């Protein structure tokens, strides 16, 4: 399987920064923290009321872009897909070549049920909340899908697993175009059980900070269009990036806690390096899972330091301090940011970092301002409840820039 | 993707189905009577309903999966664990085996219960253990953690094609080197919550099934390359395959909620067509997976009669009840396609032991079709 030839030809996003990849990247460059008070739900009574929402104006603007659907996540996904196909120069219908859809999610359409949460017995208004396939319904209305339509829900590694599945489908020739991404909307159910688990931060998500207190839910969708590099070139376009390698594993340890040694993460990082035939020092940015929870970040930093031990400490930051944790969309959003980082030679910073955790000393935590300099390879890792781990290694679109 | 993989074992937790032989019989028989059960959802506006369903199914989790903490696991995770742990496999930790699971319903009652509690309890009093189980990946995570399988861990959800795609993704992980083998399965449960989306013309069902897949190399039951496309192309493939003796399957197992489509596919075909939802009920994503398991069961049923040599995995498949009893298969009324199979030289007369047929292996196509027109198909054969 020739993964080396799988290129990213287009990207799209809906995020707490608004509609579009441009808005997302501007927020990253401008170091804006997009978490804040939740407006969509009544959280009075909850000790913590902050999350990262797609702004109401952006939600309203979806009306002019995509068909109506009860699920916001389904509409986010449709909007991001249309943007990504447009970016790739591919029509949504009447294309040459077979198109497959590979989408990751954690909760899918289930948050539709959240709208019935109030005072007293729970109302149950519709059927779509119990039909996971509805997540793809809006995309199907705006894009002709004549290849696989795969909905992956392995936990918070979902976005990366979708990229891995799509890249393999392109490499094997099963599809000519793989629309890969992730989507989730803000879930009051997640907010409720994270509150019970005392896993929510009160003021900000501070990944890898000694004072980190927890995470905050986020939402959105992000899509990468994958094709064989020759196909992109044949259309007279240049790849935005390349998928150099992907790898999957599991911790097989605990439903909610990462393996204390980061076993699955280490395995996937090493496999990615082996497959891409690159050395640890060749990775210019590790886009961390970095949820800001006490349980995660130290384990992750130690695992990355061990897996990428080279002449220098691995350069690492998490964008969740800015974007919140968008669950199934998180890794896809991070991959899109990785594509932009490769294009603009900017390593995003740990924007909310105040006091680096000494337990994370094995990695080079990027200062809040970020770093300008050559970015040739980005390693993006994702994992979550259940123990599934998936890591993606991206490289520049121009292979000569390796 | 590898061209094919070998099925090294199977585990089943289905209503009135104990093994591959009884699954083959169930597919071939008239629909079994379903049990009327009452479903309620306390603390909600949903009124209790009574509905015919296939179930309940007992998880019967083997000791291999451990006994501590089982009571805290969701029912669907227990069904998955029961099916997975009953397959033959290495004991102890294993970082080379992937777990790939498909389900439409995993985590659904837990999600709804958290919502109901959030409606009726003060913030912060929702049961914290329910939340992590309210996503789709509970069965795959439970199987991985309980059996110590640290290979890739994937969950697919959606409609019937997810069940066949789970096999395709497992084959992809094996081909890429992420795993050397895979435990692939699917499950479904029936609750008051799942019934909000149930279709009136189908009988909801619960259960779980899984297969152990190894890269091809031996003979036995083989799973071929998966084809995932739209309904027009999938139908064309079936018609083209049927038109030529070299490619014609010996049967077709379909998972779809559309009974008319099954009738149309069966019309004029020179081979029998079996319908998962008609025989086993509506299992959502697990329906597509059971089309493959059903095809494997039908192949296994004819395999010992047709195979020129013993299956190398016979020891694995010969666990309690996994290999069919030839006498049972040859009994009256159990093989509606007996004429066809006998005509093809695959089936002996009742009570008569067949001579091996070294020329023609059994080949059955499994097909899943969703209402949106998405399809997945896979060829199952015995060699």
From TrEMBL, chain A:
Residue span, Ketosynthase family 3 (KS3) domain: 3-396
Protein name: Beta-ketoacyl synthase N-terminal-like domain-containing protein
SMART domains (UniProt xref): PKS_KS
Homology family: Belongs to the thiolase-like superfamily. Beta-ketoacyl-ACP synthases family.
PROSITE patterns xref list: KS3_1, KS3_2
Pfam families, alphabetized: ketoacyl-synt, Ketoacyl-synt_C
UniProt keyword terms in alphabetical order: Transferase
SUPFAM superfamilies hit by this protein: Thiolase-like
PANTHER family noted in UniProt: 3-OXOACYL-[ACYL-CARRIER-PROTEIN] SYNTHASE, MITOCHONDRIAL, POLYKETIDE SYNTHASE-RELATED
Keyword Transferase assigned: yes
Record organism: Phytohabitans maris
Alphabetical list of InterPro entries matching this protein: Beta-ketoacyl_synthase, Ketoacyl_synth_AS, Ketoacyl_synth_C, Ketoacyl_synth_N, PKS_Beta-ketoAc_synthase_dom, Thiolase-like
From TrEMBL, chain B:
Highest rank taxon of the organism: Bacteria
UniProt xrefs under InterPro entries: Ketoacyl_synth_N, Thiolase-like
Pfam families given in the database record: ketoacyl-synt
All copies of domain Beta-ketoacyl synthase-like N-terminal, residue ranges: 83-225
Gene3D superfamilies the record matches: 3.40.47.10
Name the UniProt record assigns to this protein: Beta-ketoacyl synthase N-terminal-like domain-containing protein
């Amino acid at each position: 399987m020739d993964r080396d030839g799988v290129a990213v030809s287009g990207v799209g996003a809906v995020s707490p920064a608004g509609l579009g990849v441009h808005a997302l990247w501007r927020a990253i460059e401008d170091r804006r923290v997009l978490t804040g008070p939740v407006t969509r739900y009544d959280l009075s009574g909850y000790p913590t009321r902050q999350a990262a929402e797609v702004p109401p104006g952006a939600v309203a603007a979806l009306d002019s872009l995509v068909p109506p659907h009860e699920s916001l996540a389904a509409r986010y996904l449709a909007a991001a897909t249309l943007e990504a196909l447009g970016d790739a120069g591919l029509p949504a219908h009447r294309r040459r070549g077979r198109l497959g859809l590979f989408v990751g999610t954690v909760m899918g359409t289930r948050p539709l049920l959240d709208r019935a949460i109030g005072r007293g017995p729970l109302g149950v208004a519709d059927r779509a909340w119990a039909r996971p396939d509805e997540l793809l319904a809006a995309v199907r209305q705006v894009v002709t899908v004549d290849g696989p339509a795969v909905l992956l829900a392995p936990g918070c590694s979902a976005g990366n697993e979708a990229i891995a599945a799509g890249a393999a489908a392109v490499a094997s020739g099963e599809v000519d175009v793989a629309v890969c991404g992730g989507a989730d909307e803000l879930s009051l159910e997640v907010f409720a059980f994270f509150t019970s688990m005392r896993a929510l931060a009160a003021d900000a998500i501070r990944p890898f900070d000694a004072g980190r207190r927890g995470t905050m839910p986020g939402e959105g969708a992000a899509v990468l269009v994958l094709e064989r590099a020759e196909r992109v070139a044949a259309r007279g376009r240049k790849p935005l990036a390349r998928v150099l390698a992907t790898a999957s594993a599991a911790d097989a340890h605990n439903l909610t806690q990462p393996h204390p040694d980061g076993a699955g993460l280490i395995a996937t990082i090493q496999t990615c390096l082996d497959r891409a035939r690159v050395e640890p020092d060749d990775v210019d940015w590790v886009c961390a899972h970095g949820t800001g929870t006490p349980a995660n970040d130290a384990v992750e930093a130690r695992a990355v330091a061990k897996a990428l031990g080279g002449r220098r400490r691995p350069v690492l930051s998490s964008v969740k301090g800015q974007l919140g944790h968008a669950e199934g969309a998180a890794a896809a959003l991070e991959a899109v940011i990785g594509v932009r980082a490769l294009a603009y030679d900017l390593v995003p910073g740990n924007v909310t970092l105040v006091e680096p955790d000494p337990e994370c000393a094995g990695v080079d935590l990027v200062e809040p301002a970020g770093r300008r300099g050559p970015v040739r390879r980005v390693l993006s890792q994702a994992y979550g409840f259940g123990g599934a781990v998936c890591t993606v290694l991206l490289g520049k679109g121009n292979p000569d820039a390796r | 993707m590898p061209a094919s993989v070998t099925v090294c074992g199977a585990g089943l937790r289905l209503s009135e189905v104990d093994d591959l032989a009884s699954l083959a019989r169930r597919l071939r028989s008239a629909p079994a009577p379903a049990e009327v059960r009452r479903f309620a959802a306390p603390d909600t506006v949903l009124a209790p309903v009574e509905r015919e369903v296939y179930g309940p199914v007992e998880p019967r989790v083997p000791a291999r999966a451990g006994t501590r903490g089982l009571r805290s696991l969701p029912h669907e995770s227990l069904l998955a664990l029961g099916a997975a742990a009953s397959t033959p496999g290495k004991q102890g930790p294993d970082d080379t085996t992937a777990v790939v699971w498909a389900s439409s319903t995993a985590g659904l009652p837990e999600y709804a219960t958290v919502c109901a509690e959030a409606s009726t309890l003060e913030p912060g009093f929702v049961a914290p253990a329910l939340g992590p189980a309210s996503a789709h990946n509970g069965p795959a995570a439970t199987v991985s953690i309980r059996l110590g399988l640290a290979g890739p861990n994937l969950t697919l959800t959606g409609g019937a094609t997810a069940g066949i795609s789970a096999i395709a993704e497992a084959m992809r992980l094996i081909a890429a080197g992420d795993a050397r083998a895979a435990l692939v399965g699917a499950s479904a449960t029936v609750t008051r919550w799942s019934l909000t989306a149930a279709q009136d013309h189908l009988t909801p069902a619960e259960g779980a099934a899984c297969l152990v897949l190894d890269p091809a190399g031996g003979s036995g039951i083989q799973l071929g390359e998966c084809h995932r496309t739209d309904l027009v192309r999938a139908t064309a493939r079936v018609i083209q395959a049927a038109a030529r003796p070299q490619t014609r399957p010996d049967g077709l197992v379909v998972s779809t909620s559309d009974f008319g489509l099954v009738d149309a596919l069966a019309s004029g075909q020179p081979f029998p067509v079996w319908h998962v939802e008609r025989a086993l009920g509506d299992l959502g994503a697990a329906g597509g997976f059971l089309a493959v398991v059903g095809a494997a069961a039908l192949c296994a049923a004819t395999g010992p009669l047709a195979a020129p040599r013993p299956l190398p995995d016979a020891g694995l498949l010969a666990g309690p009840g996994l290999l069919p009893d030839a006498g049972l298969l040859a009994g009256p009324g159990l093989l509606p396609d007996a004429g066809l199979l006998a005509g093809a030289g695959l089936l002996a007369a009742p009570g008569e032991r067949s001579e091996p047929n070294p020329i023609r292996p059994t080949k059955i196509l499994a097909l899943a079709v969703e209402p949106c027109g998405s399809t997945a198909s896979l060829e199952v054969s015995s060699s």
